[in-house]
Amino acid sequence: MERNKNNVIYTAMAVVVAALVALLIFLFLQKRNSDENAAKLQQMQELAEMDKLEMQNEYEEFARQYSELQMQINNDSLVAQLEKEQRRVEELMEELKRTKNDDAAEIMRLKKELATLRAILRNYVMQIDSLNQLNQQLRGENENLRSENEQAHANISSLTSEKQSLTEKVAVAAQLDANNISAYGKNKKGKQATKVKDVKKFQINFNVARNVTAVAGMKSIFVRITTPTAQVLTHGGTFPYENRTLEYSIRKDIEYTGEEQAVTVYWDVAETLSAGQYRVDIFADGNLIGSTSFALE
């Protein structure tokens, strides 16, 4: 009887010890998972901060250029338009400063505003450049009307000296933009899928916008897909960006003519996906030219 009693006690103690060991293992795994999630969150916040810093630098550059353009022209109507656009840039810059790093929707909206401002600035640069070309033509045509065109010759000389300062602005205006961006998962039948378990491929569609100021020729487009856990889907390829190298998911080489061009790329899913928000960033010529996001259940 005493021996059976001891066996029961030993068995109970063994069960308690096993339970304690299991509890310790569970707590250790929980802490490790928490540390990994914290590291991933920190990485996403750092990337968002870099995005905000880059956008802020562009907004500041646009504000400075609008100020310079106002000093270089004598057209009151055009000056008023430039002043209005400069105020808009400054307002958006303040909105960006107030935006939190985890507010993805607001950051995406301000990126779209940035692309719009770039297009507007490009238009003004082209207007001023057109004025320069027109005045150059007038100088050759008006030699017999010198007395009547002294003001025109003065404007030509002024615009000629200003042309060098426009070079930097033209470079900004020549940056490519991606618009009409869409991204989604597809199942094995090629139909759109919203559930993680059904996705066999990602399809990303976008247009490289028309830009007559950009240099035509072969362009390498890099598409970067980031998972909800801040992992980049990649086969190991990298490209230079902002004095560092980034991994890309897909590379697409296109022959750009300056006209709007539709591009479609695919990523074959060979890894385990997680549900959540996926981010797509598009790069060309060392610039981030467009972004979007999509969710999988």
Structural account:
- The model has no long low-confidence stretch (mean pLDDT 77).
- With 297 residues, the chain is an alpha+beta fold.
- Strands 4, 5, 8, 10 and 11 form a five-stranded antiparallel β-sheet that branches. The chain has a four-stranded antiparallel β-sheet with strand order 2-1-3-9, with no helix packed on it. A two-stranded antiparallel sheet has the order 6-7.
- The protein is built from four helices and eleven strands.
Brief write-up:
Helices cover 53% and strands 25% of the residues. It has 297 residues and is an alpha+beta fold.
Q: Give the CA-based shape.
A: elongated
Straight-line distance between termini = 60 Å
Order of helices and strands: HHHHEEEEEEEEEEE
Report the sheet with the most strands, covering strand number, pairing sense and barrel closure.
5 strands, antiparallel
Give the amount of beta strand, in percent.
15-25%
Oligomeric state: single chain
Quickly give the structural class.
alpha+beta
Radius of gyration: 29 Å
| Helix percentage | 40-55%
Counting DSSP E segments of at least 2 residues, the number of strands comes to: 11
Number of helices: 4
The average pLDDT score comes to: 77
Name the poorly predicted regions: none
